[in-house]
Design a protein that fits this description.
Chain lengths: 114, 113
């Protein structure tokens, strides 16, 4: 079955530690995205990537970093510089140019930092 | 002011009723309009998308876009308890071909048996 996988489902970290969230897709999509969801705020774009080895900042990129070494993978690192990292993180993908409004989401990773 | 406004609810309806959801937006450049359904602690799933103005129907779901009023709606007929979820509207510009979507905050819907 084609789809997007995110791991782990739940993640707990101490303040000051970097943490990497995994996102893999086997839909053969060109574009991939990372969103953050907080209660009552909808989804906010962190980073997006159109092709391998290229990515752009979204609306709230500060304190996050990404890489896109393979078409199928788009990991997100939440660094210690992110002031409020506790949130629900969602990865998405699309075919890209011409159909990028059709985004398909993974199941999400809930990160708790204490 | 947010670009996309959506009432967070919760919206509670009895089984079989019509659910009416809407979003307003401020940017007239938006051309693609989407509705996503998100069950608790899950990722959103794309329900429907429409381009520009008009109506689109898919089974029990109808999406409407009124660009003159900057207002979009989603109607769910014959609602079922399984429709209980948060519904997110999203929209984007045609010139932004790589799909930076602007989301509403989501409306929580509860369908009671």
């Amino acid at each position: 079955d084609g789809g997007i996988t995110q791991s782990p489902k739940y993640l707990f970290r101490k303040e000051g530690q970097n943490v990497t969230l995994s996102c893999e897709q086997n839909l053969n999509h060109d574009a991939m995205y990372w969103y953050r969801q907080d209660p009552g705020q909808g989804l906010r774009l962190i980073y997006y990537s159109q092709i391998v080895n290229d990515f752009q900042k979204g609306d709230i990129a500060e304190g996050y970093s990404v890489s896109r070494e393979k078409k199928e993978s788009f990991p997100l690192t939440v660094t210690s510089a992110q002031k409020n990292p506790t949130a629900f993180y969602l990865c998405a993908s699309s075919y890209g140019q011409g159909r990028s409004y059709e985004q398909y989401f993974g199941p999400g990773t809930r990160l708790t930092v204490t | 002011q947010k670009e996309v406004e959506q009432d967070p609810g919760p919206l509670s309806v009895p089984e079989g009723a019509i659910v009416s959801l809407n979003c307003t937006y401020s940017n007239s450049a938006f051309q693609y309009f989407m509705w996503y359904r998100q069950y608790s602690r899950k990722g959103p799933e794309l329900l429907m998308y429409t381009y520009s103005s008009g109506n689109k129907e898919d089974g029990r779901f109808t999406a409407q876009v009124d660009k003159s009023s900057k207002y979009i709606s989603l109607f769910i007929r014959d609602s079922q308890p399984s429709d209980s979820a948060t519904y997110l509207c999203a929209m984007t510009y045609p010139t932004d071909s790589w799909g930076k979507l602007q989301f509403g905050a989501g409306t929580q819907v509860v369908v009671t048996p």
